[in-house]
Target: Peptidyl-prolyl cis-trans isomerase
Amino acid sequence: MSKKLTIYSFALLGVLVLFNSCKKEYESIESIDEAKIQAYIKQNNLTMTKDPSGFYYQVVSQGAGDAMLNKDSVLYDFNIKSLAGVEYQKNSAISNFGNYLGYITPSPYRIALTNLKRGSSVKVIFPSYLAFGKNGSGNIPSNEVLISEISTYTQKTQWELDDIKIKAFLTTKGIAATKDPSRVYYQVLTAGTGTDAINQNSTLVVKYTGRLLDGTVFDSNTSYSTTLNGVIVGWGKILPLFKSGAKIRIFIPSDLAYSSIGNGLIPANASLDFDIEIVSVTN
Model:
């Protein structure tokens, strides 16, 4: 009996030692992260609030739009860096994120944005154990403390933001384009000379090149045969305005293209820029 008790005692001792060593390792990561964060805050003269869960945040801008509630849809961008300035994700000029405030993840973003207005921005520091821990993620190494800034837009809807981005693009490039009631912008390069009007049943052969607003080509075709039922909504709004032989350039807001889903090289909520030549129309 005594021998068995001794064996059990040693087994229990081993478990306790293992538990305590794991606990010390976890606490060690916390203390190391905390020291890094405190040094960064001091070096950069930041005034940050520490949440009970361990992350830090600072309101950069209160925003000048409407107050944001958990039930409200919010459009936003965010970037992620290391404390040393290594950039792991940066904001994109051609797309953005969107979600209800109450569903924005990770939760530190949501907590930091609470009680702010549209157009606000906050800086968040994630200790590694609240980020990607010892495993890291992609190009983010093990036990990396991350700093991120999330910025919200004043616009409430994606189409409003898209319209602003398209107009800014047209102004920057010096392009004179017409805005269709559908919110698609178009520029006539060559007027068509064909006689057949384009309708839902027409078979079209077109040449096209599709680009993102940063100039990235995501698709092209020199002999694409289709009907209006086989194209994105933005094409369907504009092509019936023209006849065969027409060459046009159209700028499509994301909700009339691939919306918040994206497609291949096309990111979510990206407006698109197309050069289109209508080669033939068959009714």
